[in-house]
Write a structure and sequence with these properties.
The protein is an alpha/beta fold. The protein has one domain. Helices cover 32% and strands 22% of the residues. It has a 4-stranded mixed sheet with strand order 1-2-3-4. Strand 1, helix 1 and strand 2 form a beta-alpha-beta unit. The chain is globular and about 35 Å long. Keywords: Plasmid.
Length: 94
Amino acid sequence: MSARGWVILTLDARLRYRPGEKSALRFYKARVLLFAQPKNPGPDWLPSLAEEFAEAQERITHFLERTPPPFVAWFHVESRKKGSKRYRLSKLNL
């Protein structure tokens, strides 16, 4: 996937802590976007997340263009903010 320039999308928050997976992410220079999971998800949280992700494409594209791999980045929606400032992408330690 990484050799093709694809981005890995995941809900697996523990991904970057497992030694084997962490090593593979580094070796293959993976670009990973980690989605925040709500503590008490409602029945519509995943479609809502997909909508927010689609709306954030410009910000996500900008982040991907300026961030060299390998990385794991956390995608989070701040519901109190408006517009593109709602979306946060934070690079996490790998």
